[in-house]
């Protein structure tokens, strides 16, 4: 219990530290945190994000700061680079993306968002689809006793955007290559986000812009391979659901939220998870 | 000394040419797809970087970008609309106030502003068309208020049709 309190204290201190650095840092977060979303930066626009992410196993809690630099090559093509600072690890980390735009692990990830379809059909309204491809290099040699190899990630997301409602549905696949005789299990996942901006938050620009999301993530992580062998336990099944909030003001954005485990069927290689927590700051240049 | 005289003559000549080709003075551009404060911020910042833009205000709820331009500027409607497109949104119809030269080209009336041609909507009121036709044979610029229609589905066409609402 004391250990848990210490972790929470560390998390709050870290969040406080992030606030103190806001004038030096800049952004991310144009939508949900945990679920995939379609928006891309404008041509020539850049953004910087910093996120504090925390995940909970049965008796441990992780804490990580993650940074994301993004640049819009065109209004439909965005490149990203995400780097981690691991503060506190858990012994058996789950195989997960964690946040949609940034993986919740010790990988350095470069990715590309391509908004291949969009139709602006009304005031504040559009439908659009985005494809995501990325590659990651591990910043840590071992994870859960397994050597970490390079990995690739691909995802597809489509959604509806308006001044009142938002909705995105997407799915992805993260594959780790073998390192020596070890291999981190691959991850298959699907996400859904429903966003709502109540009428009292629909004040016009340049006033602050707030919206609420209900986010859900279904994950199906595969087994790790250790020294060429696997437990053959099949894929784990996890389903998370939770609320998040996003606030935007000028070039600044803040978002945060919780993701609660609703259903978990995990193999012997993994532990059941607790609540996931993220606080996210964004700045658009 | 001769060089200096030439420059002195060139300055008013350039100024006259600029007046002759006219300017956009105000643009109220309807934009589709712009939903959030950061979207609006990006569009506003982009437009305010264009030389000649005095101010750019945005209403997300009305889907409008209201641009006030310097009395002498070289901005085209295409430039404004492409800036909005490069932020990821779709410009549609626009209300404009502009100063231009009235012309009759192949029997059709048009207003030239900078290097852009705004074809007069042939369905405009006959009294408006008559008035504009008279101006077509004058080199004097005229200032009009009008509704510019987006001709292409993508909103990136450089050919406009304008329904003149009034001459100012």
Short structural summary:
Chain A is mainly β and 285 residues long. Chain A has one helix spanning 2-20; strands at residues 46-54, 63-74, 77-88, 107-122, 125-138, 142-143, 146-147, 151-161, 165-176, 187-196, 209-221, 225-226, 229-230, 237-249, 252-265, 276-284. Helices cover 31% and strands 39% of the residues of chain B.
Please explain how this structure is put together.
The complex is a heterodimer of chains A (285) and B (168). Chain A has 285 residues and is mainly beta. Chain A is built from one helix and 16 strands. In chain A, the strands form three sheets. Chain A has a twelve-stranded antiparallel beta barrel with strand order 1-2-3-4-5-8-9-10-11-14-15-16. In chain A, strands 6-7 form a two-stranded antiparallel ribbon. A two-stranded antiparallel ribbon of chain A has the order 12-13. In chain A, a hairpin with a 2-residue loop joins strand 4 (107-122) and strand 5. The longest helix of chain A is centred in the N-terminal third of the chain and has 19 residues, at 2-20. Chain A starts with a helix and ends with a strand. With 168 residues, chain B is α+β, with helices and mostly antiparallel strands. Chain B is built from four helices and eight strands; from the N terminus they run H-E-H-E-E-H-E-E-E-H-E-E. Chain B has helices at 2-21, 37-48, 77-86, 126-135; strands spanning 23-32, 53-59, 64-69, 90-105, 108-113, 116-120, 142-149, 160-167. Chain B is elongated and about 45 Å long. Chain A binds chain B through residues 30, 39-45, 74-76, 115, 118, 120-126, 161-163, 202, 204-209, 211, 248-251, 253, 284, and chain B through 30, 32-38, 40-42, 44, 46, 58-63, 85-90.
List keywords for this structure.
heterodimer, A: 285 residues, mainly beta, Porin, 12-stranded antiparallel beta barrel, two-stranded antiparallel sheet, 1 helix, 16 strands, 54% strand, globular, B: 168 residues, alpha+beta, Alpha-Beta Plaits, 5-stranded mixed β-barrel, 4 helices, 8 strands
């Amino acid at each position: 219990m004391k250990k848990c309190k210490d972790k929470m204290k560390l998390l709050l201190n870290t969040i406080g530290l992030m606030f103190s650095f806001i004038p030096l840092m800049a952004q991310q977060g144009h939508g949900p945190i945990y679920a995939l979303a379609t928006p891309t930066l404008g041509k020539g626009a850049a953004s910087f994000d910093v996120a504090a992410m925390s995940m909970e196993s049965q008796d441990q809690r992780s804490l990580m700061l993650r940074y994301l630099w993004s640049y819009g090559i065109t209004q439909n093509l965005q490149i990203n680079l995400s780097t981690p600072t691991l503060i506190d690890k858990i012994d058996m980390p789950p195989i997960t993306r964690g946040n949609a735009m940034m993986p919740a692990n010790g990988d350095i990830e470069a990715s590309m968002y391509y908004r291949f379809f969009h139709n602006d059909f009304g005031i504040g309204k559009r439908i659009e689809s985005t494809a995501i491809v990325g590659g990651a290099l591990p910043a840590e040699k071992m994870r859960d006793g397994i050597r970490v190899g390079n990995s690739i990630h691909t995802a597809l997301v489509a959604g509806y955007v308006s001044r009142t409602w938002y909705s995105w549905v997407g799915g992805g696949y993260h594959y780790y290559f073998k390192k020596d005789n070890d291999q981190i299990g691959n991850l298959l996942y699907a996400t859904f986000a429903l966003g709502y901006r109540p009428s009292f938050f629909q004040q016009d620009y340049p006033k602050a812009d707030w919206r609420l999301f209900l986010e859900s993530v279904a994950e199906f992580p595969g087994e790790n391979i250790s020294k060429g062998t696997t437990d053959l336990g099949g894929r784990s099944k996890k389903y998370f659901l939770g609320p998040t909030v996003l606030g935007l003001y000028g070039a600044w954005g803040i978002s945060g939220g919780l993701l609660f485990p609703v259903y978990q069927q995990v193999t012997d290689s993994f532990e059941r998870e607790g609540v996931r927590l993220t606080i996210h700051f964004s700045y658009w240049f | 000394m001769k060089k200096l005289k030439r420059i002195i003559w060139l300055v008013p000549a350039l100024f006259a040419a600029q007046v002759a080709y006219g300017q956009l003075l105000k643009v109220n551009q309807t934009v589709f797809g712009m939903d959030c404060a950061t979207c609006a911020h990006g569009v506003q910042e982009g437009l305010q970087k264009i030389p000649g833009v005095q101010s750019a205000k945005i209403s997300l709820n009305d889907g409008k970008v209201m641009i006030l331009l310097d009395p002498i500027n070289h901005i085209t409607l295409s430039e404004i609309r492409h800036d909005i497109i490069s932020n990821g949104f779709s410009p549609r119809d626009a209300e404009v106030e502009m100063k231009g030269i009235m012309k009759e080209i192949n029997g059709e009336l048009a207003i030239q502003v900078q290097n852009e041609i705004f074809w007069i909507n042939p369905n405009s009121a006959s009294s408006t068309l008559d008035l504009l036709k008279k101006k077509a044979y004058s080199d004097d610029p005229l200032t009009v208020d009008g509704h510019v229609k987006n001709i292409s589905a993508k909103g990136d066409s450089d050919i406009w049709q304008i329904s003149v609402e009034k001459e100012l």
